[in-house]
Each structure stands twice: as structure tokens, then as C-alpha cells.
Design brief:
It is a single chain. The radius of gyration is 32 Å and the shape is rod-shaped. The N terminus is likely disordered. 2% of the residues lie in helices and 46% in strands. β52 and β53 form a beta hairpin. The strands form 5 sheets. It has a 17-stranded parallel β-sheet, with no helix packed on it. It is mostly beta strands and 515 residues long. It is built from 1 helix and 54 strands.
Length: 515
């Protein structure tokens, strides 16, 4: 009796096994046509059995909605000398899914012109999960074009995938340009430029990913948003970087269509960023706006390099509750920035400046700064060329070479008050200080005492007196005929003399230096 070979496709409801369509899986026979035949069979579920290596020499296209490829333990490979292959899997359909496949480009450096492992051209709601994608030296592991949306890229391992764009632009191992996409739980390693990039997609969420670029490569970055993007969330990622940004939001040119805005960068761990850990940058002022940077842990073993936060041509920025160790500067805010709040952060051992603010309308409040007593400036500000109200309030600055350096603008309201200076080599260096611009700050040195008038005069010895110090008086007890007090002589480094308008005034007063 003749036997009939049984195929999975003979069983109702079974997935289309690529072996039933002629795939061999020995790593040397071209299986492209068999895989394409299974996808085109009308069955929505395509199965790659484990422990086989399926060779693909030309692009596999998914043009039908609701196709799922499953291949836990199975590998799709391509040859390292096929320069014309633009992608292994090309998707132009809705609700495509891929689970568990390994895709290996086997690329030697510079071998491919451009080849992505998975290119999703259009469509909505695709899912790529539990896949291992590796060795696409001139291509992305996963590329999502902006005409699609609402994809999920989850729990994949992506290794040594580095697309190179014309003009030196940096594209990611995951190129996530499709709005509404979730990128979560992925492990991205050995990339030579950016791990995750977004050029124009809105409301993209990037959470709980691990990114560690190739060792010894200086241009390794983490996440880049480029162009006029809205509503991105970057939360809970761990990023090891080289000499470029760990996270960058670039706003482009505001004239060409609004601003990049409403982004949240929170709870990320960024390690050894030797350039700037988090950068907001725009060609035109205000083209990056409404960004919250909260709860990030940023460290750099080489404190002489880079900035933790570099904010340029941006507005309405909140930097709150971050923990920063090392770097040359903690926060750098140049003139072309407005409406920035820097609050509740901890800065430790910046080599140069912990917080530098030169922009408009800023608040620096509640930060704790511990510096390097040989070189660090705690807070540096310049209000001469800016407009609007500036406020430095309630900060604790300790162990710095100079606690605070600043230039006031006598015609603009800049207030420095209720800051605590502790164990600094020099507490402050201020110029152009107005009468009420610095008040109620607390210093190591005792800045108060009392005196009693004798025949309407008194002398107070105070060796740390500076020429800019403001001296306040408070009546303790009346004596004789009380008059109005005034400073008759002030000698920096020595003390001051007080006189009353009444020669018979013998009252006792408290005095306090207000810096």
C-alpha cells in the first residue's frame, strides 16, 4: 500500500510550516521562494520549526494583513556578500506579527550597501517580540517608517546593527519613526552609533530598554528624536554611551512647522556619557519646548568630560529630581533658552560647574550640590543680557571652590535668597548686586551679633565683612533717647561703625549681614 506524506497544511487550522512549501533549512540552500510561498498561501500563521537555518537571498514581502511569523529556536540568515538586498522581511500590511525568530545578517563591516532585518513600510499595529536580530552592519535591526503607526517592539535582543545615513545622520538599531509605537524591554548591544532613533514620529514610548554600544567606539549613543516630534516618553532605560549624547531631542527649524514638544525623560540610568547625557537642541529658539526631565541617574567616571544636561534654544523645561555624578558641568543653560526650572536635583563632583544658567526666566531651587573643592563652581549665573525674573532659592552648596558666581542686572529682578553655603573655599563672588537682590542666605561664617550704643555710637569688629555686604539692624532694648541708625563707616575685612541721629541713644540692637 502506498503511503502519503503528511503535511501540516493537511490539518485544519494548522500553521503553514515553511518546510511544507519546500524550505530545506540547511543554511546553504536558498529558501526564499519557499518562505514566500508559505506567506502567500492564504494561511495567516506561518511556522518556522526550530533548529534549522533558513537562507534568504532576496527580499521576503508581507503584503497581506494579519500575517504572523513564529519561529522560536529557528534562524533566518543571509549571505554576507549580497549587496543588493535592502531588507530580509519587507512589510506593507496591517497587524503583522513576528515572534521568536533569530535573523542573522552575517555582515562583514561595510559589506552591505543598506540592509535592514525587518522593514515595516506602512500599516498599523504590528508586533515584533522575542526575536534575536544581529549582524546588520549597515542596517537597522527593525525599521519602522513614519507612514505606519501604533506598533509594539518588545523583548527583542538586537546586536551589532548600525545603519549609516547619508550626510552623517545617526539612525538607530531600532528606527522608530511610526507614531504611537511602544518600544519596551529590548536589549540592544554592540551598535556603533545610536540604539533607538525617531525622525518625526509622535507619541512614541521607549521604556525599560538596555543599550550598550560597541566597545572602543566613540560615537555610541542611546536615543535620538530628530525633527518636530510630539509627546515622546523615555522612561526606565539603561544606557551606556561613548562620546555622544545618551538622549537627544533635536527640534529642527521652528519656521518649518512648530516645535518638538511635550516629551518626558524620566527614571533612566545613563552611565559614562563623555559628551552630554541629555541634550535638547534646536536650530531656532523655542523649537524644543515643554520637556520634563525627571528622576534620572547620570554618572560619568571621567568628571572632566561632558555635561549631564545641555539645553540649547529651548523653552519651558523642567529638570527635577535627577541624581548626577561627575561630568564637567551638571546643567548648562545658554542665553537662547527661556522658562527653565532646575529643582530638587543632586549634583556631586562636577569638575567645572554644577549649574550654569544664562537664559531667561529661570528658577534654580532646592538643589543639593557637593563639589570638588579644588575646581567646582556650585552655581554660575549671568543676568546682564537677559530679560524676565530669575530666582535662585533654597539650594545647599557645599565643598566647592566657589559656591556661587554671578553677575546681576540692576534693572532686572534677580533674587538670590535662602541658600545655604557650607564648607566652600569661597562662598560667593557677585558683581552689580542691587540692594535687595540677595537676601537671607546662610553661610558658614557667623553673620550676626549685637551692640549697645554709647552716646549714640558703636563700633563692630567683623573681619569677614565684604564691600557688597548689606547690614540690617533690629532693636533689642530701648535706651536713652532713641534715634535712627545709619552706618557711619564700613571697612571690608575689619568691621563697621554705627551712629544714631540721637547723641543720647543707648539702645541695644541686633545686627545681621545679608548676603
Amino acid at each position: 500500500m502506498a503511503l502519503t506524506k503528511v503535511h501540516n497544511r493537511m490539518i485544519d487550522g494548522a500553521a503553514a510550516n515553511v518546510m511544507d512549501y519546500g524550505a530545506v533549512g540547511n543554511g546553504t540552500t536558498d529558501d526564499t521562494a519557499a518562505i514566500q510561498a508559505a506567506i502567500n498561501s492564504g494561511n495567516k500563521n506561518i511556522y518556522f520549526p526550530p533548529d534549522y537555518d533558513f537562507l534568504v537571498k532576496t527580499k521576503v514581502s508581507i503584503l497581506t494583513d494579519d500575517i504572523t511569523l513564529s519561529g522560536y529556536g529557528s534562524t533566518v540568515i543571509t549571505e554576507d556578500d549580497i549587496a543588493a538586498l535592502s531588507s530580509i522581511f519587507f512589510v506593507d500590511a496591517n497587524r503583522f506579527s513576528m515572534f521568536g525568530l533569530t535573523i542573522d545578517g552575517q555582515a562583514v563591516a561595510g559589506q552591505f550597501a543598506v540592509c535592514d532585518a525587518i522593514f515595516i513600510n506602512s500599516g498599523v499595529s504590528s508586533t515584533i517580540q522575542d526575536c534575536r536580530i544581529q549582524n546588520f552592519d549597515n542596517g537597522a535591526g527593525i525599521a519602522l517608517r513614519s507612514i505606519g503607526s501604533n506598533h509594539v517592539i518588545k523583548d527583542n535582543f538586537i546586536k551589532n546593527c548600525t545603519p549609516v545615513a547619508a550626510g552623517g545622520a545617526q539612525y538607530g538599531s531600532i528606527m522608530c519613526n511610526a507614531s504611537g509605537t511602544l518600544v519596551t524591554g529590548n536589549r540592544i548591544t554592540e551598535h556603533k552609533q545610536t540604539a533607538i532613533s525617531n525622525a518625526g514620529g509622535d507619541y512614541i514610548t521607549i521604556t525599560d530598554n538596555y543599550m550598550a554600544g560597541a566597545a572602543g567606539v566613540s560615537d555610541v549613543g542611546g536615543i535620538i528624536f530628530d525633527g518636530l516630534t510630539i509627546g515622546g516618553v523615555m522612561d526606565g532605560n539603561t544606557i551606556y554611551t561613548g562620546d555622544v549624547e545618551a538622549i537627544q531631542i533635536a527640534g529642527g527649524i521652528a519656521l518649518y512647522g512648530g516645535a518638538s514638544k511635550d516629551h518626558v525623560i524620566s527614571n533612566n540610568v545613563i552611565i559614562n556619557s563623555n559628551y552630554s547625557a541629555i541634550t535638547l537642541f534646536a536650530v531656532d529658539t523655542g523649537a524644543v519646548t515643554q520637556v520634563t526631565i525627571n528622576g534620572n541617574h547620570i554618572s560619568n567616571s571621567d568628571s572632566t568630560a561632558g555635561r549631564a544636561f545641555e539645553i540649547n534654544r529651548a523653552s519651558k523645561i523642567l529638570i527635577n529630581g535627577n541624581y548626577v555624578i561627575g561630568h564637567n558641568r551638571g546643567v548648562e543653560i545658554p542665553n537662547a533658552v527661556t522658562d527653565v526650572n532646575i529643582t530638587g536635583n543632586f549634583f556631586y563632583n562636577q569638575d567645572n560647574i554644577a549649574i550654569m544658567v544664562y537664559g531667561n526666566k529661570w528658577l534654580v531651587s532646592g538643589n543639593k550640590i557637593i563639589g570638588d573643592s579644588n575646581s567646582t563652581v556650585g552655581i554660575q549665573f549671568n543676568a546682564v543680557t537677559i530679560a524676565g525674573e530669575q530666582l535662585i532659592h533654597g539650594n545647599q552648596i557645599s565643598e566647592c571652590a566657589t559656591g556661587m558666581v554671578g553677575t546681576f542686572n540692576a534693572s532686572l529682578p534677580t533674587f538670590v535668597y535662602n541658600n545655604h553655603f557650607l564648607d566652600n573655599t569661597t562662598d560667593y563672588s557677585w558683581t552689580n548686586r542691587g540692594a535687595n537682590s540677595a537676601q537671607d542666605n546662610v553661610f558658614d561664617t557667623t553673620l550676626s551679633g549685637e551692640f549697645t550704643l554709647t552716646s549714640g555710637t558703636a563700633s563692630v569688629v567683623f573681619s569677614s565683612l565684604t564691600a557688597d555686604d548689606l547690614i540690617e539692624f533690629y532693636l533689642k532694648t530701648n535706651g536713652g533717647t532713641e534715634g535712627a541708625l545709619y552706618i557711619s563707616n564700613k571697612n571690608a575685612g575689619v568691621g563697621f561703625d554705627v551712629a544714631s541721629t540721637s547723641a543720647t541713644d543707648t539702645s541695644t540692637y541686633y545686627w545681621r549681614v545679608n548676603r
